[in-house]
C-alpha cells in the first residue's frame, strides 16, 4: 500500500491542562484515532487517507508521546486524566460525538471512554486490546497470559526499562515491531526510524512507560462493568504474542451490539500489517451501522 505522506496536516489542541499534537485529514463527522505503545499517530498512516474520504480523521499523539506534552508525574497518567484528554479533543474540535478507534493502549482508553461518555461515541472500533474485564480476568486466572504480560512487570522498575530502550540506538523499538510482525515487510526502515525518533524525544520514554506504571493497575483492579450500548467492532490479529485470542471470548457479555473480526497470520500490529483488511472491516462495520 502506498501512502501519500503530504495528504494530512499537523496541528495542536489545548486540553485538560496540556497541549496535544495531532494530524488531520478530511471533512465531515469526526473519526478519532488513538495509538498504542510504543507508537504515535503514525501507526494510523494507512487508515488516515482512506477514511478521510468520508470523515474528518484526527490521529492524536497521546499525552507523553512524540510531539504532545509529556508530564513526568505518575499521577498524570491516571485513567481519568487520559479520558479527560479524549473528551477535550472531541469537544474542543467542535463535535458532539465521534467514531472512536483505538489500538493497544489507545484501545484500552477507548473502552473506558465509551463507558464514561457514551453520548460522545457513535461507534467504537477496537484493535487488539481486550475489554478491560476480560484482560483483568486473564491476568488473574490464565497462567499463559500472565507469562505473556510479564514484560509489564519489568516496566514497573524505575529507570532500568528506559535504559534498555535507549541501548544500541533504541534497538528494543525495532525488535518490538520486527520480531512480532508475521509479515516482516510491514515495517520499512523509515517506519522503524520514525518510531525510534519519537521515543527518543526528551521525556518520552518515561511518559510512555508511565501508562504501565499507573494505568495498568487500574485495568487489573477496577470496577464492575455494565453492558456497553455503543455499537462496537473488535478487530484482532490472531498472532498477537502479548495478548491471547482467548481474551476476546465472552466479550459479548459486556457489549450489546458487538462484531469481532479475526485476521489470521497477523500480529499485534494489525492495522499496519494488514491495512487493507482492517480498512475493509472498518468500512463494512460503518456502512452496516449507517444502513441499520
UniProtKB/TrEMBL annotation:
UniProt cross-references to Gene3D superfamilies, sorted A to Z = alpha/beta hydrolase
Respond yes or no to whether keyword Nucleotide-binding is given for this record: no
Q: Which Pfam families match?
A: Abhydrolase_1
The family database entries (InterPro entries) matched by this protein are listed as: AB_hydrolase_1 (IPR000073), AB_hydrolase_fold (IPR029058), Epox_hydrolase-like (IPR000639)
What does the UniProt keyword field contain? Hydrolase
The UniProt entry, under PANTHER family, shows:
EPOXIDE HYDROLASE (PTHR43329)
Entry protein name = Alpha/beta hydrolase
